[in-house]
Amino acid sequence: MDYKPIKKVISGNYAAAYAAKHARVEVVAAYPITPQTSIIEKISEFIANGEVENLQYVPVESEHSAMAACIGASATGARAFTATSAQGLALMHEMLHWASGARLPIVMVDVNRAMAPPWSVWDDQTDSLAQRDTGWMQFYAENNQEVYDGVLMAFKVAETVNLPAMIVESAFILSHTYDVVEMIPQELVDEFLPPRKPLYTLTDFDNPIAVGALGTPADYYEFRYKIEKAMEEAREVIHKVGREFGEKFGRDYSQMIELYRTEDAEFVFMGLGSLMGTVKQAVDVLRSEGYKVGAAKVRWFRPFPKEELYELAKHVEGIAVLDRNFSFGQEGILFNEAKGALYNTDAKPIMKNYIVGLGGRDFTVSDVRKIAENMKKIIESRKLDREIEWYHLKR
Amino acid sequence: MVSLEEVREMEIPENVKKRLSLPFEENFYAGHTACQGCGAALGLRYVLKAYGRKAIFTIPACCSTIIAGPWPYSAFNAPLFHTAFETTGAVIGGIEAALKAKGYKVKGEDGIMVVGWAGDGGTADIGLQALSGFLERGHDGLYIMYDNEAYMNTGIQRSSSTPYGAWTTNTPGGKKHFLERRHKKKVIDIVIAHKIPYAATASVAFPEDFMRKLKKAQKIPGPSFIQLFAPCPTGWRSPTDKSIELARLAVQTAYFPLFEYENGKYKINMPSTKKEPKPIEDFLKLQGRFKYMTKEDIQVLQQWVLREWEELKKKAEVFG
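The joint structure predicted for all components is written out below.
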């Protein structure tokens, strides 16, 4: 890691745009939506200022077409990038399946925003988590630095396993908040992320192929299995790429779950994205007050880090899962996944689901403390007061 | 049977070559799964003849998805990307952008042709937005709408390109005389409203005219659009050996006139410009789909055809 980083104070969205630039993306097809828009504005600026070469920007007429155009570009062998939020992501849904089904390593930044109605532009993870079954990998960034690093790693992982990847950041909390980001000099990024070697391309006129033709019941099944195989392979690739990133640039991402002060923890807080920054800060405060707590930040939600969760769950008495999202008729989505992943194991920590911060409701260190007090009681009494708690609810 | 490879290597005698009005080269394989008498299959054969192997095809949900063959087969001797119903315009835009980013020549004499091939439902209805985007952004590509006037692949449901009076499975006639009551949507007019450099109608009954238009679409930079009239015996309830005759009658009755819109100028190019159009009944009576039409219904359609025809002639006169 002998290099001089380029330090800039930038927003999460600019971090995403710079990462796309440094990844030398060849086609960007995107549609404006708050709070994503400044990503594509910044990319347009790069083009206008002559800071990028060979980048085609397609200002499409909808998010559905944004993903469709990225699919066409990626199938032609280009490195394709887009960004969206909430309603835009939901509109893309059909094409998200298409991208993974056609095995195209498109990278997209989703700026988490609450789904309407009522209209909201604020932070909420339900938009991205509702896309969990589309065959996209998902990485949740805690801060602007992770947005930048995440985009670069996502291209490498995606192009290795030939599946698309989504980098998720929080509305406003990251997207529009300025923070120091250490960027990597272009030549080092080029070394880390060489030009894409596509699985297939539509430009091979001597050996023309048909992509996505009818798969009869005799064949379709295996196509699905291969996607799952690629997802399984992605776990190993993520470990490897995350380690390489750490060795080269000093920030290690080899673990799909980042553990913070969990060594002797009685219970841990688990969650996704920027809210885990607040939680880490709270953990420091709580530790100084005598609480034996830690934080488990789930970086990659897809593929789901089952084994790492098991290793953690074996050693703690309780897990407080903080979900800034909800699956109606059931529970928080991360809680649901984590509980399910542990069911057939011998790890049986007490698990409670706290629904926090929906639609951008403020979630602070003092909220984490209240949750810690509640969790402590539960663990001491070995009695779960309730499984799901709508934490902020006005009474 | 002679294989395609053998056909490709055949020496064509010069005297034969001189008489050919279409390229000898075949890039649409036998063994495709189209119905007998399919206009779309014929159209594909001509397009693949026109561009040889240097074209990238995008096909959304439509009959041609099936015609091209199931995995791992392909009836195309050219790259083919299957995509979702409403996305043809966006996908070909993305392909063109990628080709340009990678430094390929797109369109023109030796350039790569980026071709979207979509049915009338995938164009006039669900794909209209993406088509508009493709046209408006000025991509170097060609969008071909093969028009068989209904959702044939899903089993003959009406589209906005279905003509007045037609039977389809969701305008089934019946006791209440529930037939298609809307006139055919003029997609070509919507396309021309984008003021693109080149738009044309074509018919499988006039292959030389179609070929000439395909070549023109290759030469002219920017987005091109061709609406190809493609009879469907299955959906039109017509004899399979009448497809060409029906396509010809559609032109001769002025139901589907052949014309070009090139850089703001209209040009009617059909054999019957000077003659009075044949009565629409000549076109209708060969098809089972129009059998529920009353005399009054036929009159409504006839008047619409003549009004549209007059309008087109005016445009050619004023903007010729």
